[in-house]
């Protein structure tokens, strides 16, 4: 009985793409707006990745040139949890690699850093500089990896 009601509700809410959105998308594709917006986003992502790679040049960073995030590998003395905690203490948010692990219990020694969320590139550079500074420090005694 509930399955039928749920199926009906799902069908009513997502039966098709809203016609207005489909029309806008079709027009943007036809007139080149979609391609221009895509290129603008790629250029911005590449610029932000260049900033990140410059600021974090002395550290292990992996990213796609046009990606909206990067992976920052941590030195042996830092756990991902301790690094995330220290970064948050300094008002910079990162996500532990474990949040993206395929298997529960995996503890990758890296963090994911988003380079697209912050609207102001100067603030992005400041946040990345803070992360680079943390990497040059020893973790607090309570966070040492044993």
SSE map:
Layout: H1 2-14, H2 19-31, H3 33-55, E1 61-62, E2 69-73, H4 80-89, E3 95-96, E4 110-114, H5 121-136
Antiparallel strand pairs: 1-2, 2-4, 3-4
Please give a structural write-up.
This protein has helices spanning 2-14, 19-31, 33-55, 80-89, 121-136; strands at 61-62, 69-73, 95-96, 110-114. It is α+β, with helices and mostly antiparallel strands and 146 residues long. The chain has one domain (17-139): Aspartate Aminotransferase, domain 1. Helix 3 packs parallel to helix 5 (121-136). The longest helix is centred in the N-terminal third of the chain and has 23 residues, at 33-55.
Would you summarize the structure shown here?
The protein is of the alpha+beta class and 146 residues long. The protein contains five helices and four strands. The protein is flat.
What are the key terms here?
146 residues, Aspartate Aminotransferase, domain 1, alpha+beta, 51% helix, 4-stranded antiparallel β-sheet
């Amino acid at each position: 009985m509930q399955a039928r009601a749920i199926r009906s509700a799902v069908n009513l809410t997502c039966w098709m793409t809203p016609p207005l959105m489909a029309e806008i998308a079709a027009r943007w594709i036809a007139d080149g707006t979609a391609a221009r917006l895509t290129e603008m986003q790629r250029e911005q992502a590449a610029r932000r990745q260049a900033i990140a790679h410059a600021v974090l040049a002395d550290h292990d960073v992996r990213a796609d040139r046009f990606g909206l995030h990067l992976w920052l590998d941590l030195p042996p003395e830092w756990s991902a949890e301790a690094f995330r905690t220290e970064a948050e203490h300094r008002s910079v948010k990162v996500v532990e690699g474990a949040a993206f692990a395929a298997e529960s219990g995996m503890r990758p020694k890296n963090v994911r850093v988003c380079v697209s969320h912050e609207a102001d590139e100067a603030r992005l550079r400041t946040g990345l500089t803070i992360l680079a500074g943390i990497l040059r420090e020893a973790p607090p005694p309570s966070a040492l990896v044993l």
